[in-house]
Amino acid sequence: MAGASIESLRHLSDDADYYVTALDLYNRESRRVQRICEWVDGNLHAMATSMDVTLQKEDSFSVLSVGAGDGIVDHRILGHLRDSAHPQLRAVILEPDSHMMQQYQDLVSKESTKLQGVDLDWRQQTFQEFQATAKEDDKFHFISCINSLYYCGDLEKSLKFLYEKLDSGGLLLITILSAEGGLGKLWQHLSNTSISQRQFTSCYLQETCKKQNIPIAEMQKISIQCDISPCFDHQLSQDGNTLLDFLTHTVNFAQNAPAEYRDDVLRFLGSPECSVRGSGGKVILDASNVAVLIRKQ
Ligand SMILES: C[S@@+](CC[C@H](N)C(=O)[O-])C[C@H]1O[C@@H](n2cnc3c(N)ncnc32)[C@H](O)[C@@H]1O
User: Which Gene3D superfamilies is this protein grouped with (predicted)?
Assistant: First the structure.
């Protein structure tokens, strides 16, 4: 397929099994999950206690987790909410991938005491499917979208729906690639191509919120770095290939992208715009996220 057009490249999330493999590798190399968990541990308590939510004794605090994945981050958020916001919690867990949902369920059984009293409503479905069937008066006190909003379709529509689904005093927490980080800049660099129109960053999120009069209460940077040296090896290893596929969100990018386009992407990825040189000439990509907090008045 060498020399194929950019338009014919396959988006990573259109190959569900390969997406999971590539995400696992990226998570390992970047320690993304650990960084976000550290942020959650440092901030969730204050966030939960700052919420102005009125609940009767018999009411549950309701949570929606969008694209919860294997649950490592999302179940930690639930634990903090249970400890700090309300002991009686009901959580709808949206995750379309059966393998990841199973991993989340295994984690909950393994750490059963951590989520005691939490009523988990597992939905193996996409956000779009949930959106199509959601009841109008079903509202949530807390909604989390941890690196999942990219996959939920039209951003304007998703944000409008999520904001409407927040109960009064509720909080929407979104983590997304920072437009100022190297990976965010790469996604913006790619954004003129049809393959990557689904890959937006904090900048587009801010613009979309402004357009819809959705007030952003706070934005906090979560620093994440990833050693991407294997993406520049002359003879790409399997890991180098898979990592490059995750970064570009393209299946078999090195083999299938037109040569000129591939070289431009690699040049930009290795440039100071995106990366720094670490010890032994390692190429270290800034893949920082931003945590965006939206409060419903
Ligand atoms: C980058 S992972 C994040 C997973 C988890 N929240 C975390 O931070 O570790 C993106 C998640 O979104 C899920 N996803 C993909 N398409 C989706 C959709 N249309 N609706 C909801 N979730 C989706 C994926 O299966 C995956 O679990």
Answer: Vaccinia Virus protein VP39 (3.40.50.150)
| Nearest residue by C-alpha to atom 27 in ligand 1 | 69
With a 6 Å cutoff on the Cβ, whether 147 touches ligand 1 is: yes
Residue 67: helix, strand or coil by DSSP?
Answer: coil
Whether 100 maps to a domain, the answer reads yes
Number of domains the chain is built from: 1
Distance CA 29, CA 48 (A): 31
Report if residue 61 sits inside a domain.
yes
pTM higher than the cut 0.90: yes
Q: Is 23 in the pocket of ligand 1 (CB under 6 A)?
A: yes
Is residue 92 domain-resident?
yes
Q: Atom 4 in ligand 1: which residue has the minimum CA distance?
A: 69
b/e per residue, 15-31, with b = 16+ CB within 10 A? eeebbbebbebbbebbe
Gap between the Cα atoms of 180 and 201, Å rounded:
9
Which atom from ligand 1 is nearest to the alpha carbon of 67? 22
- The residue range of the domain holding 49 is 31-177
Ligand 1 centre to CA of 149 (Å) is: 8
Each residue's pLDDT tens digit, 107-139: 999 988 888 889 999 999 999 999 999 998 899
* Residue 82, domain member (yes or no): yes
Residues in the chain: 297
Query: What is the CATH number for 117?
Result: 3.40.50.150
